[in-house]
């Protein structure tokens, strides 16, 4: 019985060592840009950190109803390849993204994505914006906050103000 247990333990340890070596080599491969051929067509494998946002989420905090707000997200190209933002899509019509559609972002350069939010509806909000780049990749950024309802009329006239003047 001890021999079976020892044999099982040795097999388990060797499998774990091989799995760790495979994970290490896979993660090293994704950190570099490589080119392979599949069916005589070149396939380029790009690393995940080509496009980096200085912040991926922005909190507007409490904003008054009826007052649109905007925030600028800065995107940096941290690769040695040119970065091209293809499309920026918001999760709803109340969020409007703007970016330089024809601009290629060179290595080490940055660009801006301005996200506007129409604060028409009262209550908390959390909106997602999907940024598609280099034809096949995408990342998400988000905005959040809370819209408080503004009074429908101005403050009532203080009738006791005349008493204070006397």
Task: Summarize this structure briefly.
By secondary structure, the protein is α+β, with helices and mostly antiparallel strands. It has helices spanning 2-30, 161-165, and strands spanning 34-38, 41-45, 51-53, 57-64, 69-77, 83-90, 95-99, 104-105, 110-117, 123-133, 137-148.
Please tag this protein with its features.
alpha+beta; five-stranded mixed β-sheet; 166 residues; 2 helices; four-stranded antiparallel β-sheet
Write the topology of this structure:
Layout: H1 2-30, E1 34-38, E2 41-45, E3 51-53, E4 57-64, E5 69-77, E6 83-90, E7 95-99, E8 104-105, E9 110-117, E10 123-133, E11 137-148, H2 161-165
Parallel strand pairs: 4-11
Antiparallel strand pairs: 1-2, 3-5, 5-9, 6-8, 6-10, 7-9, 10-11
Q: How would you portray this structure in words?
A:
The protein is an alpha+beta fold. The relative contact order is 0.17. The chain is elongated. The longest helix has 29 residues, at 2-30. It has a five-stranded mixed sheet with strand order 4-11-10-6-8, with no helix packed on it. It has helices at residues 2-30, 161-165; strands at 34-38, 41-45, 51-53, 57-64, 69-77, 83-90, 95-99, 104-105, 110-117, 123-133, 137-148. Strand 1 and strand 2 (41-45) form a beta hairpin.
């Amino acid at each position: 019985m001890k021999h079976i247990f020892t044999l099982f333990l040795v097999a388990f340890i060797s499998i774990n060592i091989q799995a760790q070596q495979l994970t290490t080599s896979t993660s090293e491969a994704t950190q570099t840009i490589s080119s392979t051929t599949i069916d005589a067509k070149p396939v380029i494998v790009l690393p995940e950190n080509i496009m980096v946002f200085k912040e991926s989420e922005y909190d507007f905090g409490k904003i008054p109803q009826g007052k649109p707000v905007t925030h600028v997200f800065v995107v940096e190209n941290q690769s040695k390849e040119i970065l091209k933002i293809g499309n920026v899509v918001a999760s709803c019509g109340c969020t409007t993204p703007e970016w330089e559609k024809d601009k290629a972002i060179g290595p080490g350069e940055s660009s801006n994505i301005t996200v506007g939010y129409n604060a028409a509806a009262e209550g908390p909000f959390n909106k997602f914006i999907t940024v598609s780049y280099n034809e096949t990749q995408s990342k998400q950024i988000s905005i959040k906050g809370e819209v408080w309802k503004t009074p429908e009329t101005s403050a009532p006239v203080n009738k006791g103000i005349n008493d204070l003047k006397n």
